[in-house]
Specification:
Strand order of the largest sheet: 1-2-3-6-5-4
CATH class: Mainly Beta
Distance between the termini: 17 Å
CATH architecture: Roll
Number of strands: 7
CATH superfamily: Electron Transport, Fmn-binding Protein, Chain A
Shape: globular
Structural class: mainly beta
C-alpha cells in the first residue's frame, strides 16, 4: 500500500463522517455514512440513514470535509452486511486529499495527496 493512501486513510478515519453518492437507475442518491479505516485498499462504511437499497458491486463516491480539508474517494462496494445497520466494504480505486488555499479574495483547492488504486474484482 502506498504512503499517500496511508496518509489519506488516516485523515478519513479522523473525520469519520461523510457523504456517499451513487447512481440508482436514473437518479443520483446521497446518504450520510460513518467511515472507518480497514485493511489495505478497503474502507468500512456504516450507513446511518438506511436507504433500503442493495449496493453490492455499485460504484460509489465518498466525500468528506473538515475545516480546509476536502477528501474525495471513488470505489466499489465489495461486501454488504446487514444486521441492525447496513455495513459496506468499499474497495478504493481513487482517493484525493485537497486543501483549501486562499490569497486575498481568491481561493482554490490544492492537491495534497492522490492515490490511484486498482479496479476491484
Amino acid at each position: 500500500m502506498s504512503e499517500n493512501l496511508d496518509c489519506i486513510k488516516q485523515k478519513i478515519g479522523a473525520i469519520q463522517f461523510g457523504l456517499m453518492r451513487f447512481q440508482d437507475q436514473d437518479e443520483q442518491l446521497t446518504m450520510e455514512v460513518k467511515i472507518a479505516d480497514n485493511e489495505g485498499e478497503l474502507l468500512s462504511c456504516i450507513i446511518t440513514d438506511s436507504p433500503g437499497k442493495k449496493l453490492l458491486n455499485k460504484r460509489v463516491n465518498l466525500i468528506q470535509k473538515y475545516r480546509d480539508d476536502y477528501l474525495y474517494i471513488a470505489g466499489k462496494v465489495t461486501n454488504e452486511l446487514q444486521k441492525n445497520t447496513q455495513i459496506l466494504a468499499v474497495h478504493i480505486t481513487r482517493a484525493c486529499w485537497f486543501v483549501k488555499m486562499s490569497k486575498g479574495k481568491v481561493s482554490w483547492l490544492q492537491e495534497k495527496y492522490v492515490y490511484e488504486g486498482t479496479e476491484a474484482a
